[in-house]
Amino acid sequence: MSGPGNIRYKVAEAARLAGVSASTLRLWETQGLVVPGRSATGHRQYTEADLARLRRISWFRAERGLNPAAIREALEAEGAANDDSGPGPAAEGNADLQVGRKLRSLRHAAGKTLEQVAGDVGIAASVLSTLERTSQGVSIAVLHNLAEYFGTTVSSLSGEDEPQARALVRAGEWRKWPRTTPGVTVQLLAEGKNQMDCHRFVLAPGASSEGAYRHEGEEFVYVLSGRVEFVLDSDQFYDLHPGDSLYFESRRRHAWSNRHDGETILLWINTPPTF
Description:
Jelly Rolls, three-stranded antiparallel beta sheet, plasmid, globular, alpha+beta, Cupin_2, 434 Repressor (Amino-terminal Domain), 10 helices, five-stranded antiparallel beta sheet, RmlC_Cupin_sf, Multidrug-efflux Transporter Regulator, Chain: A, Domain 2
């Protein structure tokens, strides 16, 4: 049986529990105040933590009369205060939030504001704020650019190089990266600090990198099922089907998207681990 923390609410249910309309929830999402998860079919899903945030947003708006920008700042300040007081047991056990926490720590260590980092990377400050708070809401390309900005990798942000490696990983027992990008699940086929990043990418219909990126190293991609399109250097297109593979230098700008009407599953290897 699922525990309370695993309950997911649809838009109408979340709106009723938060005391607002469904259209208000969608408006808050466009304003970067909340980023709900998505089901496999793309429908919005709200957790208990999302509901608590929705109630805080409603309170700031009704009782304090704050505009969206001020509400974001107030929520950011609350998040920073919680960080300073130390995470509670639930937060410590919630690996899905670690990407955002690590990015916030890196930003604070660099002495940068949300606006400075967002401007340098080319995203809205509200998007970065949401990512730091929820570890969700950005594409793989944006996440890579943020990791590169702070001199780290997406793998490191996702906890892949933490000292809990297993030499043998059984089928179906893969650890996962925190799910920062809707429709993209990254499973670890090898753990620890290795010379290769070995991943199993599971892409929902329509999932993509949402932009091109590049880094050092070389990459090998093998299609286990489905269909995926890769674009290298903006003008070389590769339509890959089950059994097809692609090898390329990571310094070439690369983008990808699932072209299958179902899931696409990829074996993806980077060496050295620079992604």
